[in-house]
Specification:
With 757 residues, the chain is of the alpha/beta class. Strands 11-12-10-13-14-9-15 form a seven-stranded parallel beta sheet, with helices on both faces. It has a six-stranded parallel beta sheet with strand order 16-21-20-17-19-18, with helices on both faces. The chain has a five-stranded mixed β-barrel with strand order 2-3-4-6-5. Strand 18, helix 21 and strand 19 form a beta-alpha-beta unit.
Length: 757
């Protein structure tokens, strides 16, 4: 939210830099800070009270840390080495303490002289460096440090009570140097334009923006920090929600063709041939979708549904309704495997209504949209052609598919991003269904939208349960429907953690369980984090780790290795195949077909099976190195079993010790099948940026103090306020501060945060 000229001033300029050119360069390259405003919005991560020492006991490995501690002792050693063969090499070892733990600092060579003079026992200082392990002890090698000095008693008293801001830093620029740079630009905070409407700010008792910036960088008390954070959270939530509200408002102004299915068309024929009744949840969500389709503005709806809740069926009914009304529907999948699978399941569900191999004899049809296919030789009275379009199709099949779309011969097309290419023309595109939104960006959405004579309706599906606030933050431009009932006949999935290191016999039992399921005529998945044919990255090879690191961090288990070991060992005699993302599309499809047909007993795969793979006969899944996956991802994977009438079993194999956070995460997954509960746990345990993933490429830079789980109320209230502001003043003519903040948020150089791809 970088605002007026003073805040837009670059930190580095040819003639006069706000900061030293070297500092400005590091800030730009390593922290993405280019202007005075950027720096003012680079908030401290936490604060050290000078009177209170950091917990050295809790230091994270391999992370760049800043600690405040006291020197306990310092010893200078001499040693012989290749460089100093006469025993003239020097190593300074300094032990620092904070009462909770001790940490060793080491300095070598010429670097020992200054710290040897300055770091005397009893000296307090801030130290910054990367935590490593040497001889099984934590250490910082060559840390940067800043002595903390206090002169007379009174000064020491006030100094001890002050709060030291610790900033997100890099190895090239320590926290206290960032603090000094902030000090230089802090006077500019007075010129910050306030993005919050005055009535909103005053009504909620929030401090002004200049005051908030001063208090976050130079707090005198914890109350100052609380005031500043409360205010800055509102800025982030509100500006983000205004961006989304404006997008919703703009979308609502677009025209669209209302698509209302006839009473006895394709949709009715499809419903008549369904061998089961829809769940109440499916009926409710379908009503919401059909109501949207019947309006003359484009639908923008997010359909969330647990794995196996029947989202594809709901989406197919929406597509059939549009075809009935004379339009075409397109379904986009993130991968070819998934597009082929959707195509198979849609044509199977539709049966003769997908009037497949009969088209060669069918007379050319007039009129739009692929409905009313009476007259087709041997076809059902109501039928439409369902075509597949992917990047790896042969030229002839592709030409035919493109022709069918352009003429309106095909009512439904299912494909990958290949659907967005310029060559693809539709006769009358009425609905776009996007599967797994987080892999599909706004730009792609807009490109596809441009394929219709008027903007098509949009239905986005995700099997990742998204907590309400994340939905409001990331998908805030979409209305939300939730399918939370599982269809009748679905079996529960039992999940168990298998502690392979503590109890190796549990792992042996896991493979016995797989054999037992196969003996009953069922099939199994084994999932691994890695493929195993990766060539060694020269950069990674160059940065060889210490033996301690190697022991602690073995590479994740790989599909190719595990498949080989299982086929020769515990699963000897069973038909084991592999599936991963680097296989050719035809090979992947052949493997999936064999597995779906029951010809393969065990499929050893990467997470390519995570989304949408549907083999009802698969009843057991073993996830190797389960601690390497996120909570939501494990939940997604687990949803691939128990899809038939036999109960499902998911075994989470890990070598992590019982007390570790990773084990607690796995225990949480094993203890509940509620995806929404798990997504909350996921979000609380991981950094938000990871969970929202690429859903917010640039928004990660926009969410600095707002936490989407903890600040649920602020986000909900900000959404309401934003909707009211945009309804009253869509162009924000009377709110110049808000408009400027919005421009900064949506600045194209910082990948537009609404980009979700």
């Amino acid at each position: 939210m970088d605002l007026v000229p003073a805040l837009q001033e670059p930190l580095k300029q040819p003639l006069k830099s706000v900061l030293g050119p070297a500092t400005a360069k590091v800030m730009a390259e390593h922290l993405g800070l280019h202007t005075v405003g950027d720096l003012l919005h680079h908030y401290p991560r936490r604060y050290e009270e000078r009177g209170q020492l950091t917990h050295l006991a809790d230091l994270p490995m391999d992370e760049h840390v800043t600690v405040v501690a006291q020197v306990a002792d310092a010893r200078l050693h001499t040693f012989a080495s290749a460089r100093a063969p006469r025993g003239k090499g020097q190593r300074l070892e300094v032990t620092i303490t904070d009462g909770s733990g001790r940490l060793q600092l080491v300095f070598f060579g010429n670097g020992v002289h200054k710290p040897h003079k300055e770091l005397l026992p009893g000296t307090r200082a801030m130290f910054a460096g990367k935590v490593s392990v040497f001889n099984r002890r934590l250490q910082l090698a060559h840390p940067a440090y800043e002595l903390l000095k206090g002169e007379d008693g009174e000064a020491v008293e006030s100094w001890a009570g002050a709060l030291i801001p610790l900033y997100p830093a890099t190895a090239k620029l320590e926290s206290w140097k960032i603090g000094k740079a902030v000090q230089t630009v802090l006077p500019s905070a007075q010129e910050a334009l306030d993005p919050l409407p005055e009535s909103l700010r005053a009504g909620r008792g929030l401090v002004t923006l200049p005051e908030a910036l001063l208090k976050i960088h130079r707090p005198h008390s914890k109350a100052d920090i609380a005031d500043a954070r409360a205010r800055l959270k509102w800025d982030e939530a509100f500006v983000l929600q205004v961006a989304l509200a404006r997008r919703r408002h703009a979308d609502a102004q677009l025209p669209a063709v209302a698509r209302v299915p006839g009473p006895d068309g394709l949709l009715a024929a499809f419903d008549d041939r369904l061998p089961f009744t829809l769940t109440e949840g499916q009926r409710k969500v379908s009503r919401e979708i059909f109501a949207d389709l019947a309006t003359e503005h484009p639908m923008h709806r997010l359909l969330q549904g647990e794995v196996g809740s029947g989202k594809t069926l709901v989406a197919l009914r929406a597509m059939l309704a549009v075809v009935d009304a004379g339009g075409q529907a397109a379904m986009l999948a993130p991968t070819e495997v998934l597009a082929q699978q959707h195509h198979r399941s849609v044509t199977e569900m539709m049966g003769e209504l997908a009037g497949w191999g009969l088209w060669r004899e069918a007379p050319p049809r007039k009129g739009g949209g692929g409905s009313q296919e009476g007259g087709m030789l041997g076809g059902a009275e109501h039928a439409t052609k369902v075509v597949l379009l992917t990047g790896s199709m042969g030229a002839a099949a592709r030409r035919q598919a493109l022709l069918d779309l352009a003429t309106g011969e095909a009512g439904i097309v299912i494909g990958t991003h290949a659907l967005i290419e310029d060559k693809v023309r539709f006769h009358d595109l009425g609905l776009v269904v996007v599967d797994e939104q987080h892999r599909f960006g706004v730009e792609q959405r807009d490109a596809l939208r441009g394929k219709g004579k008027q903007p098509p309706h949009l239905l986005v599906m995700t099997a990742t349960p998204i907590p309400r606030t994340v939905a409001m933050t990331v998908f805030g431009d979409l209305e939300t429907s939730v399918l939370d009932q599982l269809p009748a006949g679905r079996s529960p999935i039992a999940s168990h953690v298998v502690p392979a290191a503590d109890k190796p016999h549990f792992l042996a039992r896991a493979w016995e369980r797989v054999r037992e399921e196969v003996a009953k005529g069922h099939q199994a998945y084994v999932v691994c984090p890695r493929i195993g044919d990766e060539e060694d990255d020269p950069k990674k090879a160059a940065a060889k780790k210490s033996p301690e690191d190697e022991a602690e961090k073995r590479p994740p288990l790989a599909v190719l290795d595990v498949a080989d070991q299982l086929a020769k060992g515990p699963l000897h005699g069973l038909k084991v195949e592999v599936l991963h993302g680097r296989m050719q599309p035809d090979d992947k499809d052949a493997v999936m077909r064999r597995f779906a047909a029951g010809e393969t007993d065990v499929l050893v795969a990467t997470t390519v099976i995570e989304v949408g793979v549907n083999v009802p006969n698969a009843t057991v899944m073993v996830i190797m190195d389960a601690d390497r996956f996120g909570v939501s991802q494990l939940h997604q994977l687990r949803g691939r079993v128990g899809r038939g009438s036999a109960p499902g079993l998911c075994l989470l194999v890990t070598e992590m010790p019982e007390a570790s956070a990773a084990r607690q995460r796995l225990n949480a997954v094993a203890s509940t099948l509620d995806g929404f509960e798990l997504s909350r746990i996921d979000l609380e345990q991981r950094r938000e940026g990871d969970v929202l993933g690429q859903a917010q490429s640039g928004a990660r830079s926009s969410l600095r103090v707002l936490a989407v789980i903890d600040d649920e109320e602020i986000i909900a209230e900000a959404r309401e306020e934003a909707a009211a502001v945009v309804a009253a003043d869509p162009d924000l003519e009377h709110l110049p501060g808000l408009r400027t903040a919005l421009d900064a948020l949506l600045d194209e150089e910082r990948e537009q945060y609404l980009e979700k791809g």
